[in-house]
Design brief:
Strand content: under 5%
GO biological process, one term: cellular response to phosphate starvation
Protein name: Phosphate transporter PHO1
Radius of gyration: 35 Å
GO cellular component, one term: endomembrane system
Number of helices: 31
Number of strands: 2
Membrane topology: Multi-pass membrane protein
Structural class: mainly alpha
Keywords: Membrane, Phosphate transport, Transmembrane, Transmembrane helix, Transport
Oligomer: single chain
Largest sheet: 2 strands, antiparallel
Strand order of the largest sheet: 1-2
Helix content: 55-70%
Length: 768
């Protein structure tokens, strides 16, 4: 049977952990009562008898023993505590205070227990009321937004109908429609809607029924705040802002209107999507609040039963009666609002289809299958076996020897290195997912993943092992065909065929092989490649950071593309890709691109948030670009000047990166922290792990020193060393990922942030 403390730890909401009943602290208080009730050792009993014998026995001793036994027998039915409510000083909140009616032999411990219990009850109550108030306000705002949306849809449909009728009837608009539209406009103005023409109604009234009223139709300019999440919206927003500043601003004083963007069908659709997402998030928050209430009720029940058992009293009925009367149990506002959200969603966003509503509001999570674990083990065994076979064949055929190995290392090996580095990164991501789950870090919420189709750590390991088994199998087949005497131009096409197969699987439109994950990955890569035109989310930042650690992979992809496009696999003239000017220039571009994308993301966030830290973060990536460019140039022009430039730029970039890793990304090196040079809140209990991680990150960050040490290696050893250093960087990035998300999770816990903040599309007129 699982202990309730472990069950509570597994089910509580991680971001609200501090607001839950501190069940573990209350258990310690109960344990103190239990220790105080233990019978005294024989030596202490003898001493007490000797002490009492000094004063002799009293004739009232039998009477005392009779009343004490009677009191203990009657205490099971009489109330032994009294729970009082009183108003908190300087606040309108009620607090609970427990008085002991019955005297306990362990009075101090019992009193301390109930003081702690009262504090936990007051904490839970106040947190619940605060969150309930927050969600109620959200609900009111969304209802208001929905009313505006429905009215706008109605106005647009009426305008289209009146436009068609005016064309058929010679330009006349019926008065009934005119008055109806006027009423809707009045309702919108009450909701805070602003219009371009402040005298719209006057124009409509003057228009009457005669003449062509097309020019007198209400031209609405509601302030619709649609986030610039796509390149089209971003470019439109920038051009609109410039046009308004250059052209429209001088005319604002003349028009007397409220300003804003003209309504069109596309904006209404975007607004509807935003409101729908806001309702989904509100429903999720209300569900969390309901879970919070039920778990805390069970915790109070369990701890009071423990107290009754240890103290041999019946305090739980009296206390639980007050707990059930408290706000977090007695209030039904959250449940009623959940029902209201279900009805609204069914009516307005699901075409009265309740199944569709529940699919949005309560998505079903995938059940973990043991078959995944089985195939992970199967493919791991296959990979180890095939890799052993490959190592033996490579040794026997001498493909890595200095004389015959250059052709293989320069042409075929970079292709397989791409797959190896990618598989290693997938393996590290699987380890990240495992550790995040084990430490209750809510990565799905942080990355805004859908729990129903997000990748689990077993899935990541399955993809990784399948990937590497296929690649190593292809490497073994390649060596066997070479040894069998097949034409090199035919055999060396195998890596290209393997690449085409994996690309086809990545873009496969059928709902197989983790299609939601594959397409989400492609969307993220599109967002990164088009930075800063797309809105920057944390998952985009996270993925772009992964790319900065995969620059060797990108360079291998460049070599692979040249290898197959230029037909080098047929001629085996690998100098074609190494000596060309275009190829050498592309090396700089590929080395700069990941840093450029991250810098553009920082710039976008600075424009949106006006946070100076984003500019400082952008400076980190600019310094990394300068250091990478200096090292590439030094590899071609080995002289003292470029050696000095490499040392200065690389040392500066490394110190910059280390500072940002530890202080900003990990939140460590805080001299005022209660955990020396760490941070106040740590997920891992063993502090030494953090100190070792700091040292490991420093060591792996300075791996660039090898490039300027002047070591001379042969071609094969040099390529192997490059692959080894690239693998170390991937491992460092996987290690960095855990602490980066841990810091983000700790920040969410500190803010009790378990629900995403929502953006509403319609802004009040006074907000400008």
């Amino acid at each position: 049977m699982v202990k309730f403390s472990k069950e509570l730890e597994a089910q509580l909401i991680p971001e609200w952990k501090e607001a839950f009943v501190n069940y573990w602290q209350l258990k310690k208080q109960v344990k103190k009562i239990k220790l105080a009730r233990k019978p005294k050792p024989p030596q202490q009993v003898a001493n007490s008898i000797n002490t009492s014998s000094e004063f002799g026995f009293s004739i009232f001793d039998p009477i005392r023993s009779y009343f004490s036994s009677a009191r203990s027998s009657s205490s099971t039915t009489a109330e032994i505590i009294k729970v009082r409510r009183k108003m908190m000083a300087g606040s309108d909140h009620e607090v609970y205070q427990t008085d002991l009616v019955h005297l306990f032999s362990e009075e101090d411990e019992v009193k301390a227990f109930f003081e702690k219990l009262d504090g936990e009850l007051n904490k839970v109550n106040q947190f619940y009321m605060a969150k309930e108030k927050e969600f109620m306000q959200r609900g009111d705002i969304l209802n208001k937004q929905l009313d505006i949306l429905m009215d706008l849809k109605r106005i647009l449909s009426e305008n289209r109908q009146s436009g068609l009728e005016s064309e058929l009837t010679g330009g006349e608009t019926p008065k009934s429609e005119q008055s109806e539209t006027e009423e809707v406009i009045a309702a919108l103005e009450k909701n805070g809607v602003s219009f371009v023409n402040s005298n719209t109604r006057t124009k409509m009234k003057k228009g009457g029924s005669g003449g062509n009223n097309n020019n007198n139709k209400p031209k609405m300019a509601l302030r619709v705040d649609i986030p610039a999440t796509t390149p089209t919206r971003t470019i439109t927003a920038v051009t609109s802002m410039l046009w308004e500043d250059l052209i429209n601003n001088p005319k604002k004083g003349e028009s007397g209107g409220g300003g804003g963007d003209h309504i069109n069908r596309k904006k209404i659709q975007c607004a509807e999507k935003m409101i729908r997402s806001a309702f989904v998030e509100l429903y999720r928050g209300l569900g969390l609040l309901k879970t919070y209430s039920s778990l805390n009720m069970v915790a109070f029940t369990k701890i009071l039963k423990k107290f009754d058992k240890v103290a041999n009293q019946q305090a739980s009925p009296s206390y639980l009666r007050e707990v059930k009367k408290s706000h977090f149990i007695s209030s039904d506002k959250a449940v009623r609002l959940m029902d209201e959200v279900e009805c609204i969603f069914t009516k307005h966003f699901a075409n009265n289809d309740r199944k569709k509503t529940m699919k949005f509001l309560r998505p079903q999570q995938q059940k973990e299958s043991h078959m995944v674990t089985f195939f992970v083990g199967l493919f791991t065994g296959c990979f180890v076996s095939l890799f052993s076979v490959y190592a033996i064949l490579a040794h026997l055929s001498g493909i890595f020897s200095p004389t015959t190995g250059r052709s293989y290392v320069e042409t075929v090996y970079p292709v397989f290195s791409v797959f190896a580095l990618l598989s290693l990164h997938l393996f590290m991501y699987g380890c990240n997912l495992f550790m995040w789950k084990a430490t209750r870090i809510n990565h799905n919420f942080i990355f805004e993943f859908q729990p129903s189709n997000s990748l689990k750590y077993r899935d990541s390991f399955l993809i990784c092992t399948t990937f590497m088994t296929s690649v190593v199998g292809a490497m073994v087949i390649h060596l066997l065909l070479r040894a069998a005497g097949f034409s090199p131009s035919q055999v060396d096409a195998i890596p290209g065929v393997l690449i085409l197969i994996f690309i086809a699987l990545l873009i496969c439109p059928f709902d197989i092989l983790y299609r939601p994950t594959r397409y989400y990955f492609l969307r993220i890569m599109r967002n990164i490649a088009c930075s800063p035109l797309y809105k920057v989310l944390l998952v985009d930042i996270f993925m772009a950071d992964q790319l900065t650690s995969q620059i060797p992979l990108l360079r291998h992809m460049e070599s692979t593309a040249c290898y197959f496009i230029a037909g080098t696999f047929k001629t085996h003239r690998y100098e074609t890709c190494n000596s060309g000017k275009l190829y050498r220039d592309l090396v700089y571009l590929i080395s700069f691109l990941p840093y450029y994308w991250r810098a553009m993301q920082c710039l976008r966030r600075y424009i949106e948030e006006s946070d100076v830290n984003q500019l400082a973060n952008m400076g980190k990536y600019v310094s990394a670009m300068l250091a990478a460019g200096a090292r590439l140039t030094y590899a071609k022009k080995e002289n003292h000047l470029w050696f000095a430039i490499v040392l200065v730029t690389s040392a500066f970039a490394t110190i910059y990166q280390l500072y940002w890793d530890f202080v900003k990304d990990w939140g460590l090196l805080n001299p005022k922290s209660k955990n020396k040079w760490l941070r106040d809140d740590l997920i891992l209990k063993n502090k030494s792990i953090y100190y070792m991680s700091i040292g490991l990150n420093v060591v792996l960050r300075v791996a660039w020193v090898e490039t300027v040490m002047g070591f001379r290696f042969k071609m094969v050893e040099s390529r192997m060393l490059d692959f080894f250093l690239a693998s170390l960087e991937v491992i460092r990035r996987g290690h960095w990922n855990f602490y980066r998300l841990e810091n983000e999770h700790v920040s969410n816990v500190g803010k009790c942030k378990a629900v995403k903040p929502v953006t509403v599309p319609f802004r009040d007129a006074d907000s400008d």
